[in-house]
Design a protein that fits this description.
61% of the residues lie in helices and 0% in strands. By secondary structure, it is mainly alpha-helical. Helix 2 runs antiparallel to helix 3 and helix 3 crosses helix 4. The relative contact order is 0.15.
Length: 135
């Protein structure tokens, strides 16, 4: 019921901007990941979807600025949903979501360092984790 209450309040407008950006970021990141990542079957990563096992390090478009745009999309989704109904529960859920996104990204970065080597370490120095120019 909170999603459409006070539709033109500052909080609701910011929430919708975050939610829309989340969707756009996800679409863009999947598109460029599939287009430039190639495919590399990895026996040690059977849990991954085929497009996740890239043969190439993707560094174009949104990937030029952030390493984990799909996780960034989840971050913006979480914050947008949080702003729909600010409460102790939504604060807790948002904090937990951010915590687990960071943990997941750190694990993935170790995997990427093992697979791509020095080029991924250099890429990490050039980009932020989730939000361009910030974090």
């Amino acid at each position: 019921p909170y999603w459409l209450d006070y539709p033109f309040s500052f909080q609701q407008i910011i929430s919708w901007i975050l939610l829309i950006y989340s969707g756009l970021l996800l679409i863009q990141s999947i598109y460029f990941f599939k287009k430039y990542g190639g495919s590399n079957r990895r026996r040690d990563k059977t849990e991954n979807l085929e497009f996740e096992n890239t043969a190439n390090l993707v560094k174009v478009n949104i990937y030029r600025y952030i390493r984990h745009p799909m996780y960034g999309s989840l971050l913006f989704l979480s914050l947008g949903a949080f702003l729909k109904n600010i409460s102790v529960l939504t604060i807790l859920l948002s904090v937990l979501t951010i915590f687990f996104l960071i943990l997941t990204a750190k694990v993935e970065e170790k995997e990427n360092i093992n697979f791509f080597g020095i080029s991924y370490l250099e890429y990490m120095k050039e980009t932020k984790m989730f939000v361009p120019f910030i974090i």
